[in-house]
């Protein structure tokens, strides 16, 4: 019995406290929500002003597009001329002023004394008349071409030899049984002497003896248009054991 009464009393006491606690909790929550809603409305300076300005201020409008470029006008000047297709154009009106052309000096009259006949005899007795005199003066004034060097073959130049000392056969070449032809290139001066002598081909044992002999050779001068010229040629020097 005691337990039953205790349980009943506990149930009665619990139900009354529960209602009171629930009402008090609901009232406290409403008060807290109202305070949280009213604080931003009362204290507006707490809000970030920069964020509000950024949100509320509209961006500036874009700059207007540049004006289109003005097209360049090319002015074509028409030059008026009195000659069209090689013919004189007919004037459309009478000019106000007419230019007077005055010749400073009249050309000399054409007579038979200064006219000459082609292929005949002129007034001064020169054959061919004026044309013949012009051609003769042109031929006499023709420039002369100066030839510095003339290329001549070895056979042609060998016929102009005046003095030709024989080369000495080197003893070491004889002992080695070396023989053959030494080819030299040379420039023959206007006086016929040897200049700029050089070896083109040949055995080394024979070239020195050939150079020493050819430097003493003498040629007749070569003439071109009545004047002596230098000659570029080749010289062959033969070395043979059978010839001694």
Mean pLDDT: 74
- Note the total helix count: 6
The helix/strand order is: HHEEHEHEHEEHEEE
N→C terminal distance: 174 Å
Strand content: 15-25%
Number of strands: 9
Radius of gyration: 64 Å
Q: Based on helices, strands and strand pairing, what is the structural class?
A: alpha+beta
Please give a handful of descriptors for the protein shown:
244 residues, 5-stranded mixed sheet, two-stranded antiparallel ribbon
Please explain how this structure is put together:
The protein is α+β, with helices and mostly antiparallel strands and 244 residues long. Helices cover 34% and strands 18% of the residues. The protein is built from 6 helices and 9 strands, in the order ααββαβαβαββαβββ. It has helices spanning 2-42, 49-56, 129-140, 154-158, 171-175, 204-214; strands at 83-84, 87-88, 149-151, 161-163, 180-188, 194-201, 218-219, 222-224, 227-239. Strand 1 and strand 2 form a beta hairpin. The longest helix is centred in the N-terminal third of the chain and has 41 residues, at 2-42. The chain is elongated, with a radius of gyration of 64 Å. The model is unreliable at 112-128 (pLDDT under 50).
